[in-house]
Amino acid sequence: RYPVNFDNRISRLPAETPTGRKKMEARIGNSVLALIQGDITQEDTDAIVNAANTGLRGGGGVDGAIHRAGGPSIMAECRRIGGCPTGQAVITTGGKMKARYVIHTVGPVYRDGSHGEAELLASAYRESLKMASARHLKSLSFPAISAGVYGYPLEEAARIALQTVIDYLKKNRDIELVRFVLFNQSTYDAFSNALGKLLPGE
Ligand code: AR6
């Protein structure tokens, strides 16, 4: 369903694709792991992941963008669910967006790295992937959880995000596509550098 036209593990496409968006892809087991620069609310994957807060109250950043794009049905479900602990995930409709579902997860607020931040960030990714698997979803888009208002150092956030997804995709063959949709150049570059280090290409 998501063909990749290369044999080596990382394809470094031209710096700018025809649409002007940067892109990088790797095959992990049965799945494709892709990095693009863009706005996650426009994604056509089965679900997109929201970097929410424990009260599921909405906010700024990607959370604000998702509620604006998806409309009030998402907040109505969030209110019924009531909340989500840090490192866990819940699922709602995608409302008016192309993605059918939003998986809301809560990353840690970064303090100094000694308050379990790394494990909580990994858990946010893992629980989102488990939620997608439980619903038999085939494709999922992530933003850079905790890397905005929550202040997680970008390089470390990228490494943990990618390592957690790679580990999951190696063990679970059900999800065919995981796409990181990175909003700005510096976030894209951090993820692209981290992926290059985790999966050295030919
Ligand atoms: N598409 C993709 N990524 C985006 C978009 C978008 N439309 N908009 C922003 N980003 P943040 P956090 C990127 O702050 O750090 C909210 O108020 C952004 O550039 O959205 O986990 C919640 O309610 C950054 O790289 O999430 C919580 O209270 C990344 O998304 C709190 O912020 C995450 O930044 C969560 O903070």
Structure description:
This protein has 202 residues and is an alpha/beta fold. The protein has helices at residues 61-70, 72-81, 117-134, 154-171, 185-198, and strands at residues 10-12, 23-28, 31-37, 47-51, 89-93, 101-105, 139-142, 177-182. Strands 1-2-3-8-7-4-6-5 form an eight-stranded mixed sheet, sandwiched between helices. The longest helix is centred in the middle third of the chain and has 18 residues, at 117-134. The chain starts with 9 loop residues before the first strand and ends with a helix. Residues 1-15 have low confidence and may be disordered. Bound molecules: ligand AR6. Ligand AR6 is lined by residues 39-41, 51-53, 59-63, 65, 107, 143-150, 181, 183-184, 187.
Sum up the structure in keywords:
disordered N terminus, 8-stranded mixed sheet, Macro_dom-like, Appr-1-p histone processing protein, 35% helix, 8 strands, binds ligand AR6, 202 residues, Macro_dom, 20% strand, 5 helices, alpha/beta, single chain
Summarize it:
This protein has 202 residues and is of the alpha/beta class. It has helices spanning 61-70, 72-81, 117-134, 154-171, 185-198, and strands spanning 10-12, 23-28, 31-37, 47-51, 89-93, 101-105, 139-142, 177-182.
Mean pLDDT: 92
Helix content: 25-40%
In DSSP terms (H or I, runs of 4 or more residues), the helix count works out at 5
How much strand? 15-25%
What overall form do the CA principal axes indicate? Answer: globular
Low-confidence segments, given as residue ranges, are 1-15
**SSE pattern:** EEEEHHEEHEHEH
Number of E strands: 8
Q: Could you give the order of strands across the largest sheet?
A: 1-2-3-8-7-4-6-5
Task: Give the biggest beta sheet.
Answer: 8 strands, mixed
Q: Which structural class matches the secondary elements?
A: alpha/beta
Q: Could you give the distance between the termini?
A: 25 Å
Query: Nearest-angstrom radius of gyration?
Result: 16 Å
Give the cofactors and ligands: ligand AR6
